[in-house]
Amino acid sequence: MWKGQYSEKLVNDKISKLSDEYVIFNDLLFESNGRSTQIDHVVVSPYGVFVIETKGYKGWIFGGENSEYWTQTIYKSKHQFYNPIKQNEGHVRFLHHLLRCSMNIPFIPIVVFNNAADLKVHIENHIVVNRCDLTWAISQYKTPVLDKATIDWIIKTIQQNHTIANKENLKRHKYNAKTQQYKSRNLISQSICPRCGGQLILRQGKFGSFYGCSNFPKCKFILNS
Ligand SMILES: [Zn+2]
User: Fold this and answer.
1) 184 occurs within a structural domain
2) What's the CA-to-centroid distance between 171 and ligand 1, angstroms?
3) Does residue 143 sit in helix, strand or coil?
4) Residues 6+ apart with CB under 8 A from 4
5) Does residue 218 lie in a domain region?
6) Is residue 66 located within the same domain as residue 106?
7) 212 CA distance to ligand 1 middle (Å)
């Protein structure tokens, strides 16, 4: 927990150096109907809305875009963690839902690792960087895509909907997340899609078999078999 908070602080130090075109939110917590979502950083700018997930891991990091879990190898010990790209995609889905409107808001998900992490990951369609490359990654986006009114509206909606990430709220968030995980595992064990209630079907893909949702392409839930 402490390590996680520390790396979030380091990332905040980094992004707070961006110009005032970029409005930064740290440690956002959203709650609705017993579900909650915690997002490390959201940066709203004319160039898009950056959604940042921070990982404080060091050592070698192995993983693929579509694998369910990634692996950290350090001092001959291995540790698995949920694919942070998927985790962050969940955050984007949540924001998309929160900011529902006819407008197409360009979200840019970024996963940031400790500078001491050696990233041995195969990524093509997402941004996964060390902290030292974060501002560079953000500043690659130079085309203005959001006007002032839309930016103000996004900022206002975030401000009005998030709860404060204090000890008590975070504790409830952890509890909600655990309950959600339990429910979701329970549904999966009955071959029910935890995202939409559809049927999970075994399919053959380029990289082997996987379980997909019967409501594809509307629902893109995938589980490695
Ligand atoms: Zn589904």
Assistant:
1) no
2) 29
3) coil
4) 54, 56
5) yes
6) yes
7) 8
CA of residue 177 to ligand 1 center, whole Å: 19
What is the mean pLDDT, run by run of 10 residues, along the chain of 225 residues? 71 87 92 80 96 94 88 90 92 88 83 94 91 94 94 93 81 82 88 92 82 89 75
d(CA 118, CA 58): 7
For residue 143, what are the contacts with CB-CB under 8 A and spacing of at least 6? 47
Q: pTM for the full model?
A: 0.76
Q: Which residues surround ligand 1, an ion (CB under 5 A)?
A: 193, 195-196, 198, 213, 215, 219, 221
CA–centroid distance, 114 to ligand 1, in Å, is 34
197 and 164 part of one domain: no
Q: How far apart are CA 58 and CA 60, in angstroms?
A: 7
Residue 208 maps to a domain? yes
Q: What total number of domains does the chain contain?
A: 2
Domain hosting residue 221, numbered range: 192-225
